[in-house]
Amino acid sequence: MKKKFRSWMSLCLLATLCVSLLSACGSDAKDNEAKDGKVTLKFWTIALQPTFNDYFNGLISEYQKSHPGVTVEWSDYPYDAISNKLLTGIASGNVPDVVNLNTEFANQMASKGALADLGQWMSDDEKKSYFDGIFNSTVFDNKAYALPWYTGTEVLFMNTRLVKQAGLDPTNPPKTRDELNEWSREIKAKTGATGYATTFAARMFPVEGISILNDDKTAAAFNTPATIALIQKMQGLIQEGVLVKEDANFDKQIQYYSSEQTAFEIAGPTFINFIKTSAPDVYKNTIAVPLPTGKADVRLSNTMNVVVPLKSANAEQAAEFAKFLTNATNQTAFAKAANTLPSTKESIKDSFFTENDGTLESEAKVVSAESLDKAVDYMVGVPNAGDVNSAIARQLQEIFMNGKDPQQGLTEAEQEVNQILSQN
Amino acid sequence: MKKWMRTETFAAWAFMAPGLLIVAVFVLWPIVYGLPLSLTDYSVIGETHYVGVDNYVTAFQDKSFLASLWNSMVYVLIVPIIQIISILMAILVNSRIPLIKAFRAAYYIPVVTSMVAVALMWSWLFSSNGVINYALIQLGVIQEQVGWLSSSSTALYVIMFITMWKGLGYYMMLYLAGLQSIPTDLYEASMIDGASRWQTIYRITIPLLRPHILFCTLISLMGAIRVFDEVFVLTNGKGGPGTATLTSSLYIYQKGLVQFNFGYASALGLIVSVIVGILSILVFRLNKKGGVQTY
């Protein structure tokens, strides 16, 4: 009896395994292809559920009413998962139609030929409805591979307690980078706190008007006397205690600012969310002012875009939905709901982005909105942009952290970048 | 039901089948598939081309990969240190004193703590304004703050220390199990013969622990070369400053899952696998026979 039971259990186990393995097989790859004129669009976003369920459900319902025969299926994924999810989707043939990506990843996909040119379905007026710098961040060979969506520009957050302690007037903030550095020296001398923390990465070059690559993106263009001067200046700032001697990522910068080891923080308005609960005293003493620009007179933005994969079965309908999602009316509504900024020029005229109710959030929003006309997303624009960024970042870290000779570091970075570009 | 289905062998295979199939599909097949993949420039999106051994040639000219290999070899230095300390800890906790079980639990807590939590905690302790710098300055060991994780001369060793701190309890428990399998009459006989404590450890404990030492050394070696979590968390996935903490696993991750260069990443993975295989064979060759069964 025991043997019989064991044998039947074994058979059942095998059967269960086979069924579960077979059920894991994917469904028909093109199940969202148009049939009988009905279209199902797969719409993917990053970390927007469940907070904005009401907004998106309303938006999708409105679109479906105005576009009979079109159904929008909305899925949401964590930030870290979206890239892998998209790749596996493309590899398996289960391709989404409209995908929310950041600029870096959108550029990477575009440079590998994975995205549709949305410009073919857009009028000139529609293209010009977005802020130029942000829109052009994902344009290659005159083709628009993404539509800008919600964004945020960098502002200068200031700890007024430390600033006042150093004898400075927070109501008259620094207007230039040199003034910011001078304030940082005063704060270091009188309070012991450092000015600000930053990452040592290639994105510092465009801010100072230094090109990373030449115009046809075939060779490095950053090994110039101007770059050497910039690096030497930054080395001096580190020695003086103006800059933290660390390649500080965003988490580290939050830690430094929250513990008042730094007096300034250069970040988008979402920075406030991190200090509001973890460092309420610091939050109360913080104000937001326009970030002094460098030689290029630009402010870096961090934009979320929407793209249409080239292998989408409904590219034109997907582009139509993408335009609807990112038009001025809907961007204004979403920016109000999510406390972000829109990337459409018309949206900024709304009083929500111009009136300050005295809170830090409102202050940062207004300051950030005022910077949109100078906003540009950082991008390199080649298929192996990641390699290029890594090569430059590593040499910059060697220079700033380990005292490597700036010219030697730049030359080695240039050689490595040229070798990377030669593989394209 | 057929007779062969009623045998214990069939039952055994049936119970093992699900696990074996999972291992075959998710472990063996990717390993086997890695070889043809490494001969292409597969990147999921875009066309795939056969590139022959170009990936391997590029790998040995890739300064960052060579730096990551070097860092991984340096990481192997913690293997003998972990084994020695773990054995000594196991001998210490293998005594019958009050609260010894509490000590054993305390030493094991780092093992079961999430590596992310461990790495974050130690990054705070080792930060420029952290407790470690404060203590060392107060003790007069250093005169000014040291950037432990921001200096290329110390960053890798700090991360190795964290790996060691977290792993000691695990190996300690394995050696403790080995110690408790050693017959006590051998120790009694050695006491009668007048052997000192260290002679007992050297002549009885270590030889009888050889199978455990071999096993722990092997898994520790593979873990050291494949280290990823703590390096990723402490360096934000960059392996900096520069390439100071860039290990081979992290670099393969960057190439494959960040830059989607799967063909090249497969080639790098195979090179590292060969190195691990060679080192493992060396460990087997260097290990002498031992264990309780040899006595």
Automatic annotation (TrEMBL), chain A:
Record carries keyword Signal: yes
InterPro entries: Bact_solute-bd_prot1, SBP
Pfam family, one: SBP_bac_1
Keyword list, A-Z: Lipoprotein, Signal
The keyword Hydrolase is annotated on this UniProt entry: no
Residues spanning the signal sequence: 1-29
Domain of life according to the entry: Bacteria
Name of the protein described by the UniProt record: Putative lipoprotein in oleD 5'region
